[in-house]
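Convert to structure. Protein one:
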Amino acid sequence: MAVQQDVVTVILKDHRRMEDLLRRMRSVEADRAKALEQFSALLIAHGEAEEAKVYGALKRFKNVDDEEVEHGAEEHAEGNEALLALLEVSKIGSDLWDTRLEELVKAVSHHLDEEERTILNDARENVPDERREELGAAFLQEREKHLAADCGSVESVRAVVRG
């Protein structure tokens, strides 16, 4: 039998993984290219799954702020654009790469913090446990579908950004 996972817990786990990958991309001692590849796939799959399976469902609950949910989707677009700008730099570790990495870190860190303080706290307080588990399962399934489709490639990120 599959282990049920609360959507809030699953999303928070992804957020911590993203933060770890961002730290690795900043480290000259780490495999920055591999960290970027993993981060790109996770950011795109995570955002697409949230928008497809979680955000719309949360908007149906009273006391979940619809404006924050809409804003979260806007911030996904900003993060995706910053990711694409970084992926399009050919030399990892160059001044341009480092500048674009910091722009990505700023966009993603802001989104993670805001989403955790607003949308996820609202979900914890206002969405029943059983429904959060259903959303967790739907989120994971959708995320895995995107990961299996190589969603982190520069071509895929470009397609997401351009809509």
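Protein two, convert as well:
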Amino acid sequence: MAVPRELGFFDDRSFSLIDYGHGHTYAILRGFPPFDDFVVESGEGVVLDLYFINVQRISCWKDIGPLHLRAADDAERATLESRIGPIGKKWVFLLEPDSIESYIIAGGVEWAEFVLPVPFTLPTPLDSRNREEADTYQPVGGAVHATRPY
């Protein structure tokens, strides 16, 4: 399955929050492939990594399940602002369909698929601090997708 270029997509892999940082304000979600015979025999599988930058707030469980990545509309954004206060010039990325309970407020997000070895614990190649992974594992189809600045 080709990874969509635009927000508003659904992916049925099982997603987890695998890393986040306070000082550099980032968060990384990874969509894991089904652990089937092909993955076991080949020792690798295709993951979907999402690298959120300039993160202001994270509200989600560690294990998310299937992902519906979309930007909050004006009404959803206003509802969140009434709960948590001003959001400012940031994206509100919603992670589940028909819900505003799981979200990441950030300056942007990049996403790409990578073929990684089992057990899929390597750092994301999207993070420029992970030079070895970035040099070794290229995005599937050579494509890294990203939001524009908010």
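The CA atoms of residues 20 and 55 lie 9 Å apart. Helices lie at 37-42, 74-84, 131-136.
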